[in-house]
Design a protein that fits this description.
Oligomer: single chain
Helix content: 25-40%
Largest sheet: 10 strands, mixed
Radius of gyration: 24 Å
Distance between the termini: 28 Å
Structural class: alpha/beta
Shape: globular
Length: about 600
């Protein structure tokens, strides 16, 4: 539990000092719940458990949201296409969560984004085309109306405007880049948009504010057990100096929760030596996204397009567009999934079928690839695998949670913590549906009064709006940094959308330990700039270095690592297929020194420690 003498905001500061203190706690305390995995489900579980008054720790091998949770389509959505598949329960659940996030839990991070469902023109013309057009409008309109109805009746607070039908002319006014010969109109609806990595780090900070010990660069290398019960985890501090005898240590816990996404099967294999079958299997589906400048496409809303295998989104993202995604099986390196030239060509081909000015590779500012953890079924196609989640207890003291989708992270977290609480004899229900994240308290009022707040702090209103949409009411902490050091008000070289204060704040309060953490996840400079962050790296390392105490050699090493990673990703995106793209991406070592990143991140069965 948090020290009552310390404010919630101060207790949520993830500084290097806090990391050192939490490492001491990991070594010396026994926890009620130890979570492995710093993605959205893992940090959600840590927050849920901490909010119930349990003693909680979380370890993450790399950085918060370093895997799947920073590489999504940036949507908080019910899944419009799941209605067509008659997945009513999943849509109900997701729309409920969308409403909670947009209105109560994180209104500063989740906001409405308009999306068009284009109505296809069809082959016929003239009066003969009218019946077909009316049928298609009725078909799609019924689906979107049902989507709104689910949100209105079951959504727990809509937070989104209702849908609207548009004529062909109205569609073209809203999205001039749509080819007039391929659409007969559109239906506009709204879903939620979020910076996925920022939501994860805010969840982690909120868990920390309630007393959880949360540590990144702490890799689980083995399970501890007594007889047939898991009693903890052996952890390696990836920031420890080479040869440090204290780099590996044991963390004791009454219950271990593994929220490891596409690594779930590796946890399962760790139990093979005791003949335990976990009862679930996870497959990885690769999703690739492109980022292009806003000037490349003229439109005031996003698009959702049907493809032969799935759906394609074209989404406004600040001064950019996000285009994605692919949906293909992936069996190679899971730490750094690579986008190939084939993936990029597929996305360009699909979006160009509806654009009046085709996009080319020269338009691309950024590319990112992520892996969806799907519960395996009988279908061969990953797009048909289950987006439901599962919680299993393959061994006493160990709970696995897997599957699901980003939007329903809170439900997954509550389900697995319910199981942990029952095992611990704790009768306290989940509180997270009514728990605002850090930065959410007072956000509507501060947004309403933003002109006055900006004037008091001597910053342009546009700057404050940018900070409010990324930090909520925590923006006052960045304004305080700027007040202490006016140089932090300057834009980041090569990325003028961001301030130097955001780099400093990431290192001071958001747990960023490496340059890659800041340029890839605390900000999105790595995917929003044609130079992929290379022009920003030197300045960012200097700002981070002042906070973290880096000398010249460390700063140079961080920049070198970052630029090598960018070069490897660019090389992989010129490769023709998955195998060659994966080999190219693995040409750059992880900054945390993961030799195991070229294969399984988890130990083999022989590495499981018997306690």
């Amino acid at each position: 539990m948090r020290d009552p003498a310390v404010s919630r905001y101060a207790a949520g500061q993830l500084s290097v000092t806090r990391r050192a203190a939490d490492l001491r706690r990991l070594r010396g305390e026994r926890f009620d719940v130890l979570v492995i995995g710093g993605g959205v489900t893992g940090v959600g579980a840590a927050l849920d458990a901490a909010s119930r008054g349990l003693k909680v720790a979380l370890v993450e091998a790399r950085d918060y949201a370093a895997g799947t949770s920073s590489r999504s389509s940036k949507l908080i959505h019910g899944g419009l296409r799941y209605l067509e598949q008659l997945e009513f329960g999943l849509v109900h659940e997701a729309l409920t969560e969308r409403g909670l996030l947009a209105t109560r839990i994180a209104p500063h991070l989740v906001r409405p984004v308009p999306i068009l469902v284009p109505l296809p023109q069809g082959g016929a013309s003239g009066p003969r085309a009218l019946p077909g057009r009316l049928w298609r409008r009725a078909y799609y309109g019924t689906g979107v109306a049902a989507y709104d109805a689910f949100a209105g009746v079951f959504g727990g607070g809509r937070g989104m405007p209702l849908h609207r039908h548009l004529s062909r002319e109205g569609t073209r006014r809203l999205f001039p880049s749509l080819r007039s010969d391929v659409v007969a109109g559109a239906i506009r609806y709204h879903d939620g948009q979020v910076d996925d990595a920022r939501l994860v780090v805010t969840l982690a900070r909120t868990a920390a504010s309630l007393g959880a010990a949360v540590v990144t660069s702490a890799r689980a290398v083995g399970l501890l057990r007594q007889a047939r019960e898991v009693t903890g985890v052996r952890v390696r501090d990836m920031e420890a100096r080479p040869g440090d005898p204290d780099a590996e240590f044991e963390v004791r816990a009454r219950t271990v929760i593994a929220a490891t996404g596409v690594w779930s099967d590796d946890v399962s294999r760790m139990l093979g030596d005791v003949g335990v079958r976990p009862g679930l299997r996870v497959r990885a589906s690769k999703g690739v996204h492109l980022v292009v400048p806003r000037s490349a496409i003229t439109g005031e809303a996003g698009l959702i397009l049907r493809t032969a295998t799935s759906v394609l989104f074209v989404l406004p993202w600040g001064g950019h567009w996000i285009i994605g995604t692919t949906d293909t099986d992936w069996r190679l390196d899971r730490a750094h999934p690579a986008a190939s030239e084939r993936d990029i060509g597929y996305l360009l081909d699909q979006v160009n079928t509806v654009l009046d000015r085709p996009l080319t590779p020269r338009d691309i500012e950024g590319v990112y690839a992520g892996l969806r953890p799907l519960l395996s079924g009988e279908a061969d196609s990953t797009s048909r695998l289950s987006r439901e989640h599962a919680v299993v207890e393959p061994m006493l003291g160990l709970l696995l949670v897997a599957g699901g989708k980003y939007t329903t992270y809170r439900v997954m977290a509550a389900d697995v913590v319910d199981r942990a609480a029952a095992r611990l004899g704790v009768n306290r229900p989940s509180r997270t549906a009514d728990l605002p994240l850090l930065g959410a308290d007072g956000f509507p009022a501060m947004w309403r009064d933003r002109a006055d707040v900006a004037r008091r702090h001597g910053v342009p209103v546009g700057v404050l709006e940018h900070l409010l949409e990324r930090y909520g009411t925590l923006a006052v902490e960045l304004l305080a940094l700027i007040g202490d050091d006016p140089l932090l008000a300057s834009p980041v070289p090569g990325a003028p959308e961001y301030l130097a204060a955001e780099i400093a704040y990431a290192a001071r309060a958001e747990g960023a330990l490496h340059l890659d953490d800041v340029l890839t996840r605390r900000t999105r400079i790595s995917i929003e700039t044609p130079h992929r962050g290379n022009e920003s790296a030197g300045h960012a390392a200097e700002v981070m270095g002042r906070v973290l105490g880096w000398d010249d050699a460390v700063r140079a090493r961080e920049v070198e690592h970052y630029r090598a990673r960018v070069a490897a990703e660019l090389q992989s995106q010129r490769m023709p297929d998955d195998a060659t793209a994966d080999a190219a991406r693995l040409g750059a070592a992880d900054v945390r020194g993961f030799a195991a990143d070229r294969g399984v991140d988890w130990p083999t069965d022989s590495d499981v420690t018997a306690g």
